[in-house]
Amino acid sequence: MTIVDDRTAPHGVDSRGYRRITAALFIAGVTTFGSMYATQAVLPEFSRHFGVSPAMSALAMSLTTGFLALTIIPASALSARFGRTRVMAISAISAAVVGVLVPLSPNMETVLALRSLQGVALAGVPAVAMAYLAEEVDGASLGQAMGRYIAGTTVGALLGRILASSMLDVTSWQWALEAAALLAALSAVLMVKMMPPSRMFTPQRVTPSTLYRAILGHLANRALVLLFGLSFLLMGGFVAVYNFLGYRLQADAFGLTATLTGLVFLFYLSGTVSSPTAGALSDRHGKARVLIIAVAVMLTGLIITLPDYLPTLLAGLALFTVGFFAAHSVASGWVGTLAITNRAEASSLYLCSYYLGSAVAGGSGGLVYMTFGWAGMVAYVGMLIVTAIALVWLLHRTAQRVSVR
């Protein structure tokens, strides 16, 4: 007999607590990624308004994710001492406040400074969310729960981009970003009100030496290191494509308006579906099997975007997006399974790699696109994905040896 309200055990999929947690974490994904990625929709506007190159404009994304990556591990350590929900709440609210200030920037330098600060503020939600789920949800339901959180991140990224891009043809980029920032702020308030307190969490005294030992312990786990490398490569490739897709669609070959260009972000809805689906499939059929299929779908979609033909571009982008979010859902859930202790630090290392991939590999895509065009972008991202496939194969072999599925 299942005791739904047993406070000594993690929440099962049929419990009320599970539903509250996954709903709150879905909204956490909405507010975090809405704040982070609305700016991606206005990168071409930055180039026009401030007279900067696409690579310079893309720093508004790269600096945010880069500073987020550098702050994730300290934020994780704070959550171990002061509580998961408290750190997530402070992070979401402070990031929303900074987001409201970004549209007031008088020059590109101010935009970049505020976006860097926003990256620091944002770190608390992704740093803690995975550990919070791993502690509060039972292992048999963790893949599905993680998929729901990832689905929330896709919705947030979609809403932020769509709201900003849909306003560009009728108003300025400043008002477009302000509207997206207010949406993120409302979502942050709703998240704080809905999120149940931790019941499986035990505060820990975290010192630099204990944090150092925890990180070294995870870096000694080959399977975890492979997952960290996988997150770097896949996120870098994904962000590179979406950062510069707007420039391609507004160029002469397609000539789309800013609003029509923004509609391509609707493909994030495919990620909303594929994330929980892939998580549930990985719980039943094995993580490595679902992960390799997801990465292969991502590569197939990327190749299909190559011709200057809108139907194939859109079809390829849909497959690319489905594959990415499915892979991220499975990989992030696997971290919680492989890390028996110090899960917050393990999740933070995964996400540090994830956002460093966005900042470094994703940002470098601007130089590739400016020099070699979209064909060069496809070759560049394709190399990242092929390398990721090799890492999945090694991960599968490593997991087999230690009998971890």
Give the key terms.
16 helices; 405 residues; Growth Hormone, Chain: A; mainly alpha; disordered N terminus; single chain
- Stated plainly, the CATH topology is called Growth Hormone, Chain: A
Specify Rg, calculated over alpha carbons.
20 Å
Q: What would the average pLDDT be, to the nearest integer? A: 85
Q: Describe the sheet with the most strands.
A: none
Low-confidence stretches: 1-5
Write down the domain tally.
1
Counted beta strands: 0
Give the SSE string: HHHHHHHHHHHHHHHH
Shape: globular
Give structural notes.
- The protein is an all-alpha fold and 405 residues long.
- The chain is globular.
- The protein has helices spanning 16-37, 43-50, 54-57, 59-82, 84-101, 108-122, 124-136, 139-167, 173-194, 208-219, 222-250, 258-262, 268-285, 287-304, 310-338, 343-401.
- Helix content is 80%, strand content 0%.
- The chain starts with 15 loop residues before the first helix and ends with a helix.
- The chain has a single domain, classed as MFS general substrate transporter like domains (Growth Hormone, Chain: A, Up-down Bundle), CATH 1.20.1250.20.
- The chain contains 16 helices and no strands.
Task: Provide a compact summary of the structure.
Residues 21-400 form the Major facilitator superfamily (MFS) profile domain. The protein has helices at residues 16-37, 43-50, 54-57, 59-82, 84-101, 108-122, 124-136, 139-167, 173-194, 208-219, 222-250, 258-262, 268-285, 287-304, 310-338, 343-401.
Which secondary structure elements does this structure contain, and how are they paired or packed?
Blueprint: H1 16-37, H2 43-50, H3 54-57, H4 59-82, H5 84-101, H6 108-122, H7 124-136, H8 139-167, H9 173-194, H10 208-219, H11 222-250, H12 258-262, H13 268-285, H14 287-304, H15 310-338, H16 343-401
Helix pairs in contact: 1-5, 1-7, 1-8, 1-9, 4-5, 4-6, 4-7, 4-16, 5-6, 5-7, 5-9, 7-8, 7-16, 8-9, 8-13, 8-15, 11-15, 11-16, 13-14, 13-15, 14-15, 14-16
